[in-house]
Design goal:
mainly alpha, 4 helices, 0% strand, globular
Length: 81
């Protein structure tokens, strides 16, 4: 069974356009959304998709504090069932 990080990487690869990264190319989870060229609107849409995929609710104030994909991985590892 894939880990949360692997599942998130797959979702990002399929649904998140990052500047300068082609599909399948490894994504640095520690870079900020801004640094990888993801708009705030796209980041919010991606978080919604992740919540659906992992069947978890992430409070808006937590989402607002997430600046990168690693923060999302950390949250999911702590809160997803």
């Amino acid at each position: 069974m894939p880990t949360i990080e692997e599942r998130l990487r797959t979702l990002a690869d399929e649904n998140l356009e990052a500047e300068g990264r082609s599909k399948g190319q490894d994504l640095d989870l520690n870079k900020s959304f801004r640094d990888i060229g993801v708009s705030s609107m796209d980041a919010v849409a991606f978080v919604r998709l992740v919540m659906q995929e992992f069947n978890v609710q992430i409070p808006p104030e937590v989402v607002a504090g997430m600046s990168n994909l690693q923060g999302l991985v950390d949250y999911l590892e702590a809160n997803a069932s």
